[in-house]
């Protein structure tokens, strides 16, 4: 450690008398010895070393050791250096003078030295004092993180104490000793400040005081407080400045922290949404925050020193004071609801009051209060809302609940009570699983987890509830998010759709049946809504067109219609649709392979049971085969017509030939028979007398056979004619017809007694001539085959249904074997021999032919010897 | 005795002619029956042409006309006569084997006065001739211009 005062000055002030006298004797002896030794060299100033010895002795020991050395030196010189040697007597006057001078000089030296020494000692003593004081100062400076500086304004030299260097972050002895070196480490922002302070001190020769920042060599910033004094010379010019520097970084930091803390407090208080205040024990305000100032429009100054009784109505003040006292006496924080009178009425404050001891040990009272009037009003409103909400939710036939994130019920409407039999309040706070039961919970669990992950969930499921049975539900879960976006719970809306589901199932089954039917039917089926757009096509349709349902939907199907048929198709569809009428149309529809096929489409309007129009349903069948056949038929018809013309011509020719043949038969075949008959007869007449019986019999047989052949020909011709001749329809009175025929027959029956039984007969449409033939045939037959009966009974009648009239002719004759009934109406078919009953076997064939030509039927019933009944029917007369 | 009148029988079959004449005879209808063997001959007679050029004037009181005739058939004869203003008044009885309706209808349409089908049975034939002869030769009043036949 280097101080401004040199170390060489540091001498021991107190020396023992032994030391001092020892040095005095030693100095004299040493001077004698050296002089003796160096005598030759020292001549003529032989006493020089003794002077030195006296000087040393007196300097070292003071006056008395100096005198001693002087005496000793004088003796030594006299004894050993002045002739006679080794004799104290002075032989010579000059020697005596020499010795005298020597003595005088040494006495003078001794005295001077002694006074010098005294002065020096005094100095040393004060120096020592100074040093001590300085050391004390140094230590105290060091302890106070201070350093000392001394600035010679004349030389510009700056001296810093070691601890000042340390304060400035410099190693001892490294400060360069100039103002510039100091200024270098001052924070650039503060250099001006420092400069000005110094200038002021120098100018006025006054105190210097400055706080500034410096940079340490490690770059850190420290605060320094420098104080000093400028000193002036006689002319009043400042020549020196001395002072101290101390580090005040910590203090500065503390100050900053304090300031910050103060600002924080102020800021808090000024921005606090709650009112804050501090009162002393007597209730006088010490502090109020800005909100309180603003609230009551009274500045802080108007509060301080006043009590609530000074500022507010007594009841309010008393209320608050009571609370204040409670806090001060209990020393506990008090939370209470206080009312505050406002112009617009009472406000509610939530107030916190607590004791606040201050630095002086006084106990103050601090408080904060929050205006919760709005909140209270909101709460009231909310409660009312909740009541209303309950009223609504309870009226809804849907389960409504709010479940929190822990899956516990937080709200349930009354529907829960209806479902589960417990009041909704019992369910509150319980876990879903506990309320619904294990099985039900498992069923809904995935959805609950989904909604709790933040998804909105809607689903339908069958849920086996614990207390509410199996129900088909439709549920919607809506998550509720907190401010942070986290799911806080969810609202569940649950609807029992069991009945709906059942109905749906029935509907679905019906629908499926329809789909199945529609998809397996070999027809193309579509359906449309009231907007004319088609919304359904069955599988055969899609298979046929080879398009997807999506492509066909709406108006898409029309793309497959042949462009030439499209307008017609749409017109038909649209017109029918608007009139709600059925429609039928044929058009070409593109098949999956691109070929257009003819289809026959129909459409009928659909209505609900209430008669509301629903749209159309329609079907199509592929009629391309039919169309092709039609085309072929058309072509065939054309050729056929040609062929018919040709064939007709051929037929006409053939017919003519046939007619000519018939004519020939009728004419040419009968002529020879007539001739045979005629001439046999003539022969008989002429030769009867000359002929024997056998000959006559032969002639008779010839005659009869001829007659039979004639009849056969006649009947055959009739039969042929009945098949060919044109029919002339008219209304025929069957009763009259039968009467006439009956009459004719009776004429020919040779007086046979016949019991006729004729019922009421309907009139018919037909050819009168032909029908007469029919009736005649049947009546003749009846008469013929009853010829052998003792009593002939013939019954005729008719019955009718709405389609036909059936006539019958019944006799009680020989009847017939039903096994041969099929032969009855055949040409030349006979069930009896000619010997029994003559006949040609053409009559009934003719009957059948005529009746068939009239569109009727013939049949018969009979029994051998049990009579026969012949039936024929004719179509009912149509108006 | 009744006054007998002349009848024209147009018939190609000799057997029929004989039988017809026999029937007339059997019934005592001794009219003068002129027989034409075909239509041409019949017309020739009526219009006094050909071999009948020199015959006496006067028309028969009736014509018994067969339909199936060589050369000109009965219907042609009928049509011709009925379209002739002079001849159409002569009653024409179709006497034929044909029962064809067409024939009957055509005949009447052409103006035939009667249509008689010759029965195969001789007795019936005789009856038919008898009735025809009686009616036309005796009962019926022929138109003017018909000549009475005289018994030869």
Tell me about this structure.
The complex is a heterodimer of chains A (879) and B (152). Chain A is an alpha+beta fold and 879 residues long. Helix content of chain A is 50%, strand content 23%. Chain A is built from 27 helices and 27 strands. Chain A has a five-stranded antiparallel beta sheet, with helices on both faces. In chain A, helix 1 (17-37) runs antiparallel to helix 3 (48-61) and helix 3 runs antiparallel to helix 4 (63-81). Residues 1-13 of chain A have low confidence and may be disordered. Chain B is an alpha/beta fold and 152 residues long. Helices cover 38% and strands 14% of the residues of chain B. Chain B is built from five helices and five strands, in the order E-H-E-H-E-H-E-H-E-H. Chain B has helices at residues 14-26, 39-46, 74-82, 101-110, 122-139; strands spanning 7-10, 33-36, 62-65, 92-96, 114-117. In chain B, strands 2-1-3-4-5 form a five-stranded parallel beta sheet, with helices on both faces. Chain B is globular. The two termini of chain B are 14 Å apart. The mean pLDDT of chain B is 82. The chains are: A alpha+beta (879), B alpha/beta (152). Chain A binds chain B through residues 659, 662-663, 666-668, 670-671, 673-675, 677-682, 703, 706-707, 709-711, 713-714, 717-718, 721, 725, and chain B through 13, 15-16, 19, 22, 67-68, 96-103, 118-123, 125.
């Amino acid at each position: 450690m280097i101080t401004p005062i040199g170390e060489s000055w540091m001498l021991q002030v107190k020396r023992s008398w032994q030391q001092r006298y020892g040095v005095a004797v030693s100095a004299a002896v040493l001077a004698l010895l050296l002089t003796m030794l160096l005598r030759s060299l020292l001549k003529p100033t032989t006493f020089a070393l003794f002077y030195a010895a006296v000087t040393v002795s007196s300097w070292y020991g003071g006056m008395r050791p100096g005198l001693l050395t002087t005496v000793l030196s004088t003796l030594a010189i006299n004894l050993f250096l002045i002739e006679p040697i080794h004799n104290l007597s002075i032989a010579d006057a000059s020697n005596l003078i020499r010795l005298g001078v020597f003595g005088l000089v040494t006495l003078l030296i001794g005295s001077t030295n002694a006074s010098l020494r005294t002065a020096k000692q005094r100095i040393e003593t004060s120096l020592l004092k100074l040093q001590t004081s300085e050391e004390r100062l140094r230590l105290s400076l060091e302890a106070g993180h201070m350093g000392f500086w001394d600035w010679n304004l004349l030389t510009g030299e700056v001296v810093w104490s070691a601890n000042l260097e340390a304060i400035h972050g410099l190693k001892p002895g490294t400060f360069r000793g100039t103002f510039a070196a100091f200024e270098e480490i001052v924070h650039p922002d503060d250099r001006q400040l420092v400069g000005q302070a110094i200038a002021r001190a120098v100018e006025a020769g006054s105190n210097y005081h400055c706080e500034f920042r410096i940079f340490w060599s490690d770059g850190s910033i420290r605060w320094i407080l420098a104080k000093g004094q400028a000193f002036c010379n006689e002319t009043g010019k400042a020549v020196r400045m001395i002072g101290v520097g101390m580090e005040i970084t910590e203090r500065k930091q503390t100050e900053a922290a304090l300031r910050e803390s103060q600002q924080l407090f102020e800021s808090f208080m000024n921005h606090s949404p709650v009112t804050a205040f501090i009162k002393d024990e007597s209730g006088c305000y010490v502090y109020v925050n800005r909100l309180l100032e603003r609230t009551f429009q009274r500045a802080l100054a108007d509060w301080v020193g006043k009590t609530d009784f000074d500022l507010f109505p007594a009841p309010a003040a008393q209320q608050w004071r009571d609370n204040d006292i409670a806090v001060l006496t209990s020393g506990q924080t008090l939370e209470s609801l206080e009312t505050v009178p406002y112009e617009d009425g009472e406000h509610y404050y939530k107030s916190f009051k607590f004791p606040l001891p201050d630095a002086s040990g006084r106990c103050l009272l601090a408080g904060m209060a929050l205006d919760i009037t709005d909140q209270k009003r909101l709460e009231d409103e909310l409660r009312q809302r909740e009541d209303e909400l309950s009223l609504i939710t309870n009226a809804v036939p849907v389960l409504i609940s709010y479940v929190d994130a822990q899956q516990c019920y937080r709200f349930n409407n009354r529907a829960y009570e209806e479902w589960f039999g417990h009041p909704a309040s019992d369910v509150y706070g319980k876990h879903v699983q506990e309320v619904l039961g294990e099985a039900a919970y498992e069923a809904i669990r995935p959805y609950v987890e989904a909604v709790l992950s933040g998804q909105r969930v809607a689903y339908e499921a069958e849920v086996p509830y614990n207390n509410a049975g199996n129900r088909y539900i439709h549920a919607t879960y809506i998550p509720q998010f907190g401010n942070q976006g986290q799911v806080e719970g969810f609202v569940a809306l649950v609807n029992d759709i069991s009945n709906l589901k059942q109905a749906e199932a029935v509907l679905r089954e019906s629908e499926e049946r329809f789909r199945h039917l529609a998809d397996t039917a070999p027809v193309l089926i579509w359906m449309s809504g009231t907007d004319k757009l088609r919304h359904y096509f069955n599988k055969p349709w899609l298979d046929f067109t080879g398009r997807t349902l999506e492509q066909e939907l709406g108006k898409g199907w029309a793309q497959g219609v042949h462009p030439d048929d499209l307008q017609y198709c749409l017109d038909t569809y649209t017109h029918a649709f608007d009139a709600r009428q059925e429609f039928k149309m044929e058009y070409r529809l593109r098949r999956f392979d691109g070929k257009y096929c003819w289809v026959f489409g129909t459409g009928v309007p659909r209505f609900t049971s209430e008669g509301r129009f629903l749209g159309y349903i329609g079907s199509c069948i592929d009629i391309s085969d039919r169309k092709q056949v039609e085309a072929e038929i058309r072509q065939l018809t054309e050729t056929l017509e040609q062929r018919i013309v040709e064939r007709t011509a051929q037929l006409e020719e053939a017919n003519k030939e046939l007619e000519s043949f018939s004519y020939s038969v009728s004419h040419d075949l009968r002529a020879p028979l007539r001739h045979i008959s005629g001439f046999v007869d003539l022969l008989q007449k002429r030769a009867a007398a000359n002929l024997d019986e056998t000959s006559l019999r032969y002639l008779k047989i010839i005659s009869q056979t001829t007659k039979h052949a004639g009849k056969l020909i006649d009947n055959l011709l009739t039969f042929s004619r009945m098949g060919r001749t044109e029919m002339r329809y008219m209304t025929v009175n069957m009763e009259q017809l039968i009467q006439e025929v009956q009459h004719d027959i009776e004429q020919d029956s040779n007086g046979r007694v016949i019991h006729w039984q004729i019922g009421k007969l309907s009139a018919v449409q037909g050819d009168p001539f032909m029908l007469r033939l029919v009736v005649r045939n049947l009546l003749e037959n009846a008469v013929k085959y009853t010829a052998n009966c003792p009593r002939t009974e013939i019954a005729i009648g008719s019955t009718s249904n709405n389609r036909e009239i059936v006539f019958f002719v019944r006799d009680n004759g020989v009847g017939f074997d039903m096994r041969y009934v099929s032969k009855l109406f055949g040409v030349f078919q006979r069930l009896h021999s000619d010997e029994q009953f003559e006949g040609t076997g053409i009559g009934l064939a003719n009957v059948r032919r005529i009746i068939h030509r009239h569109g009727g039927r013939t049949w018969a019933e009979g029994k051998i010897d049990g009579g026969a009944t012949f039936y024929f029917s004719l179509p009912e007369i149509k108006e | 005795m009744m006054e007998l009148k002349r009848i024209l029988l147009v018939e190609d079959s000799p057997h029929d002619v004989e039988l017809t004449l026999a029937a007339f005879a059997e019934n005592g209808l001794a009219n003068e029956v002129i027989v034409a063997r075909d239509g041409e001959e019949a017309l020739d007679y009526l219009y006094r042409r050909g071999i009948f050029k020199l015959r006496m004037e006067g028309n028969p009181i009736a014509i018994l006309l067969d339909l199936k005739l060589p050369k000109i058939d009965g219907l042609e004869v009928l049509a011709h006569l009925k379209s002739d203003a002079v001849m159409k008044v002569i009653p024409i009885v179709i006497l034929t084997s044909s029962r064809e309706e067409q024939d009957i209808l055509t005949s009447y349409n052409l103006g035939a006065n009667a249509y008689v089908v010759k029965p195969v049975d001789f007795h019936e034939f005789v009856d038919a001739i008898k009735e025809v002869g009686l009616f036309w030769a005796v009962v019926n009043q022929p138109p003017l211009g018909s000549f009475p036949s005289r018994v030869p």
